[in-house]
Amino acid sequence: MAATGRARGPGTDHEDLVSVTAAARVDARRLWLRHEAMARHGATAAGGVNRQALSVQEAQAWQLLIGWGRELGLMPATDAVGNLFLRWPGRDPLAAPVLTGSHLDSQPTGGRFDGVYGVLAGLEAVQALQEAAHVPARPIDIVAWMNEEGSRFAPGMMGSSVFSGARGLQEVLAVTDADGVAVAEALADHAAAFADLPCWPLQRPVHAYLEAHIEQGPLLEREGLSVGIVTGIQGKRTFSVTVAGQEAHAGTTPSSQRQDALLAAVRIISGLVAWCHDPQDLVRFTVGRLDVLPNAPSVVPASVRFSIDLRHPDSQRLCHLGDGILAVCEAQAGPCRVTVTELSNAQSLEFPASIRQLLSACANDLQISHMDILSAAGHDARYLHEVCPTGMIFVPCKGGVSHNEAESATASDLAAGARVLTQALVALTR
Ligand code: GLV
Ligand code: MN
Ligand code: MN
């Protein structure tokens, strides 16, 4: 529903003037050009980005961001899990900061805006505030969280979950990628390249967190609106399933004697699709990765591992569906053995009304059209929500297409979201 009327903005007349002036300093072209520059690191032939967590490409993106931050007098820092912060200290450098950002890692065939936008919108907001001669009363930290996507190391949102205390550092460091490289090893290489950065403590106090992001869905574009005020994030559970069979000769082994792990996996996945069937079409069930061993044309597959990404806005329904996965797998495994490991279990959440109202009021003051949206995609804001007042700002993306190299957004929509962010940062740092 589009906002109607003009809710009163969040401050004194003087503060409102400062924030509207600062928001007007947001430079759509500068913000766009920074997206273009970022997209060069990990650029794919099809115009997208492949920038995996803790990769060389992500390190290049860090260098670029740190350089931009230094030009604005921001102080770069990291922490034990590989998050990157750019601090603007404000009048009281010891006060708990307001954090704003997102992530710089991408899906293997990712787009130019998922995650990057939140980081660059934060930078743009800080620059606009500086140009408007605003000095925040507390620090503003622009943040790029480590491994949001979870495509190299699963599950994702590693940086924000460890920062917030929801996951332990040691547990995350032990996770390995498809080549057997552990997070600990990748992080050590990455940290060595940024050895000059101070390492800040995890789980430090945060005053508030704002994350700007492309919508990754079709609603804003369909409604012709510039900004979404995110009401919450739908729940998500992820699993890894391993089906163990027996390697055998494709020419000599009769069907009756086979333990074909791939055929078992196909039956299991079909069973899971049936289990998750939803006439309302609210369940999101995805098997996005399938690894077959030994993956040779003339060998009966010995083992298959696949991923499950399961989402639903209703936490009870998500709980029920997820809890039924093991039974479906076992019922369909035939002569093979199956193990199911749950990697993450996140309930649906609602952001606090105070932050949502603040963001709506800012959009109203700036006369930026907006609507409320539940995020169907996951975000680092999920974990920050556990430790501080948190909210999100969405902007439209073309056709709702995301996790796709064709991901696209307009410079003016990106700027509109950054303006709302800028004004909200004034309110949160006064
Ligand atoms: C985030 O990238 C998600 O998969 O929702
Ligand atoms: Mn993202
Ligand atoms: Mn993503």
A few lines on this structure:
By secondary structure, the protein is α/β, with parallel strands linked by helices.
Task: Itemize the secondary structure elements and their pairings.
Blueprint: H1 13-24, H2 28-38, H3 56-71, E1 75-79, E2 84-88, E3 98-103, H4 116-131, E4 140-145, H5 158-164, H6 169-173, H7 183-193, E5 199-200, E6 208-214, H8 219-223, E7 227-233, E8 235-244, E9 248-249, H9 261-275, E10 284-286, E11 290-293, E12 299-300, E13 303-312, H10 315-323, H11 325-332, E14 337-346, E15 349-350, H12 353-365, E16 370-375, H13 381-384, E17 390-395, H14 411-428
Parallel strand pairs: 1-5, 3-4, 3-6, 6-17, 7-16
Antiparallel strand pairs: 1-2, 2-4, 7-15, 7-17, 8-13, 8-14, 9-12, 10-13, 11-13
Glyoxylic acid is lined by residues 149, 377-378.
Features:
430 residues; 10-stranded mixed sheet; disordered N terminus; Aminopeptidase; alpha/beta; 35% helix; 2 domains; 5-stranded antiparallel sheet; single chain; binds glyoxylic acid; binds manganese (II) ion; Alpha-Beta Plaits; globular
Could you walk me through the main structural features you see in this protein, from its secondary elements to its overall organization?
- The protein is an alpha/beta fold and 430 residues long.
- It has helices at 13-24, 28-38, 56-71, 116-131, 158-164, 169-173, 183-193, 219-223, 261-275, 315-323, 325-332, 353-365, 381-384, 411-428, and strands at residues 75-79, 84-88, 98-103, 140-145, 199-200, 208-214, 227-233, 235-244, 248-249, 284-286, 290-293, 299-300, 303-312, 337-346, 349-350, 370-375, 390-395.
- It has 2 domains: 13-234 and 348-428, Zn peptidases (Aminopeptidase); 235-346, 2-Layer Sandwich (Alpha-Beta Plaits).
- Helix 1 runs antiparallel to helix 14 and helix 2 (28-38) packs across helix 14.
- Strands 1, 2, 3, 4, 5, 6, 7, 15, 16 and 17 form a 10-stranded mixed β-sheet that branches. Strands 8, 10, 11, 13 and 14 form a 5-stranded antiparallel β-sheet that branches. Strands 9-12 form a two-stranded antiparallel ribbon.
- Helix 4 (116-131) links the parallel strand 3 (98-103) and strand 4 (140-145).
- The two termini are 30 Å apart.
- The structure holds glyoxylic acid (GLV) and manganese (II) ion (2 copies).
- One manganese (II) ion binds at residues 107, 114, 149, 403.
